[in-house]
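Much of what follows relies on a compact textual record of a protein's fold. The record below shows the convention in full:
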Amino acid sequence: MKNKNDFFWPSFADLVTSLFFIMLVLYVFTYVQLKHKNIVLEEKVKIIETVEANLIPLKQDTALFKFEEQYNRFKLAFEVKFNADRAVILSDDDLINPDYTRKKIQEAGLKLRSVIDGLKRKKESDPKMKNLSYILVIAGYASKDFNPKRLAHNYELSYKRAMSLWSYWKYTMGIDFESPEYRNLIDLQISGNGWGGVGRLNNEDDNQRFLIQIFPKIAHID
């Protein structure tokens, strides 16, 4: 008569072998998955670094743009001052120092277009950038008049100022970031920040300003 141990040890060995095989398969599967994720992450980092490199000309042009590193955004480096409750850049009655201000706005628009054209060329020439697009935000701010009843009005006013900047670039200068040549590249958003937002200045009169933000959107990496 056979001892029970004669059946136990072969079965136990088969079980251990099966468990080892399962663990090996799981380890290989996990390793492959993590390796793939690391590759994707490395590719995304490279793309973001490329985007930042292409934005360097905008950072270097300190006469037109000021890069606020703590908020990762640009603002127009020159003053754009409106008379109270006014918003139209084309109107001499609305702008303070209109000729100088419009001249600087023109220079800023041309510079921004040249940088975005550089992003466009990079996307067309580099296969890794083919699924990359950008959110371009033109944001207007208003100085606070400390009347709570006018809070909504000031948000509307700051939005109208951002619309006026967009309209000036588009219709007066022909700088149209929504044109077919920028399709699948630029997602334009116009924003009115009113009294809100981070990084407001202590002197409320200085909060009549424009912010420009460019965010990369990475849809998919093959």
